[in-house]
Amino acid sequence: xxxxxxxxxxxxxxxxxxxxxxxxxxxxxxxxxxxxxxxxxxxxxxxxxxxxxxxxxxxxxxxxxxxxxxxxxxxxxxxxxxxxxxxxxxxxxxxxxxxxxxxxxxxxxxxxxxxxxxxxxxxxxxxxxxxxxxxxxxxxxxxxxxxxxxxxxxxxxxxxxxxxxxxxxxxxxxxxxxxxxxxxxxxxxxxxxxxxxxxxxxxxxxxxxxxxxxxxxxxxxxxxxxxxxxxxxxxxxxxxxxxxxxxxxxxxxxxxxxxxxxxxxxxxxxxxxxxxxxxxxxxxxxxxxxxxxxxxxxxxxxxxxxxxxxxxxxxxxxxxxxxxxxxxxxxxxxxxxxxx
Length: 340
Ligand code: PLP
Ligand code: COI
Known about the structure:
Elements: E1 20-26, E2 29-30, E3 34-36, H1 48-52, E4 55-57, E5 60-64, E6 70-73, H2 75-88, H3 96-109, E7 122-131, E8 144-153, E9 164-167, H4 185-200, E10 205-206, E11 224-229, E12 234-238, H5 247-258, E13 263-267, E14 279-284, E15 288-297, E16 300-303, H6 313-326, E17 337-339
Parallel strand pairs: 9-10, 9-15, 12-13
Antiparallel strand pairs: 1-2, 1-3, 1-8, 4-7, 5-6, 5-7, 6-17, 7-8, 11-12, 11-14, 14-15, 15-16
Helix pairs in contact: 2-3, 5-6
2-OXO-4-methylpentanoic acid binds next to loops.
C-alpha cells in the first residue's frame, strides 16, 4: 500500500523510508550487503570521512510509469560514474553489477514510497560511500561503508518550473585538474558558502566560470547548463574537465540530436557568448530541466530572451521528451529505462 503522503506538496528534502542498503568493505573485500531499517551510522570519531572528507555519492530517481511499473533512468551510468569517483579518491569500487542489483533491491523494498504517476514527485535514490575506519595521518581509509538511501522528493527549486535567477560568484567550484569531474562530497562542501551567499542576495544558484581563466561557462553547484540558439535549432553545452558529466545532459543531447533533429555543440562556451543565446536551462537528476531567466554579474544583468515567466519553447520540448521517456509515455533508446 502506498504511503499516506501528500505527494504533490513534497519539496526536495530528506525523510527516512523503510529500508536503506548497506555493505562494508573490510580486509580488502566487500561483504554480501543487505537491506537495513537502521538509518543511523555509528563510527569512529577519527573516521576518514570525518577527518579528510573521503566520500563520494550518486543521485538517480525511481518513477512510477503510467502503466504502474516502477522504473529508474540509466542506473548503469551512475554505477560507472561512482566507480570513476572512487578511483579518483583512492576508494575501493563497489562493483557496478552489485550497484545495479542494490538499487533494484532497495527500491523494491521501498515500493510504497515511490510516488504515484502524475504526482510530480519521485523517489530520489542516493548511493554513497565513505571512509569508515580511523585515520589520523593523511591517507585513505582501509574500511568503507557503501549505502543507498531513498527518499521521496518534489521539485529541487521552489516554484517548480518557474525560471530561476543565477549569479556569477567570486568563488570557484573546482580547481583546474581537481575533482570537479567526479561526484565527491568535498565539491559540495566547497559550494556551501557561495550558495548561501547567493541565497542571501536573493539568487537561486551560482553559475561558475572556469577556474583557470574565468572566461568560460562551467556549471552550477548541482546541475550542468544547456543553451539554445538559432531559433531553437541548436543546443550548446559547455565542455570542460572540471564539470560533472551529467547523465541528464548526455541524455538531453542525444534527444536533441536524434529525436528532435537539432544540432548539438558540446564545446567550451565563452561567457561573452551568453547574450547570444535564446534559452538557458540547468539540467540534472534533481533539477530535471530548470529554466534560467536572468544572470546577475556584480550589478550587471543578462536577460535571457525566453524571460522570467515560463520555460522557453525548445527547452519545453526537450523537457517533455525527457520526462516522457522517463515516465514511459514516449519510447526512448534501448536500455534507458530500467524496470525494477
Ligand atoms: N553537476 C553537478 C555539480 C551535480 O551535482 C549534478 C547532479 O548530480 C549534475 C551536474 C547533474 O548530473 P546528473 O544529470 O547525472 O544528475
Ligand atoms: C542530483 O541531481 O542528483 C544531485 O546530486 C544534485 C544535488 C542534489 C546535489
